[in-house]
Amino acid sequence: MKNNAKTKISLVSILVILGVAARMMRVIHRQQIREQNRQTIQTTKKVAEFQKTLDEEETKKRNETFNKIYNESLVRNKFENWQKVDELHGLGQRTGQFYIYNFEKKEEILLENTDQAFVLPIRDKSDNVTFQAIFAHKDGQWHIMKPDGSSQLQLGEASISAESKFVIENNVLDYDQ
Q1: Alpha helices by DSSP H, the chain
Q2: With 177 labelled, which of 45, 71, 138, 165 sits at a CA distance of 20 to 30 A?
Q3: Would residue 129 be called left, alpha or beta, if left means φ above 0 and alpha means ψ between -120 and 50 degrees?
């Protein structure tokens, strides 16, 4: 009988230990699920914040683009003829006079004694880059103009038209064929 009681006690002890172990496993499993849920929520919040930042940046870029286009159209309407040079400058003609317009400063710079002016492409062969420059016929000579309205390079009495194209090769400016 003593053996039988010991066996019963052992069985009850084993069952209690198994019950406690099963209970502990369920508690641990629940904690793991809670931790996973907490991490998922944190990740979701981070993704939402990142997406919000991206959306704000995209909206800001869209607004900047719209404002540039809108401002350019307002400026363009001030002139009879208009040619965009780059993101910051344009060349306009009004009542026979030519102006360089600076979008950043919102100012017009009169090109005095100028009877013709064009925005023409210049291709730099060494960098394989094409950019726009203002060519102005001023005081009987052609000049490449700086954005402030001063002459950057005097070309003399060259034959330049609205269709002319130029190339820089070995630091020499020449007509592009």
Answers
A1: 2-76
A2: 138
A3: beta
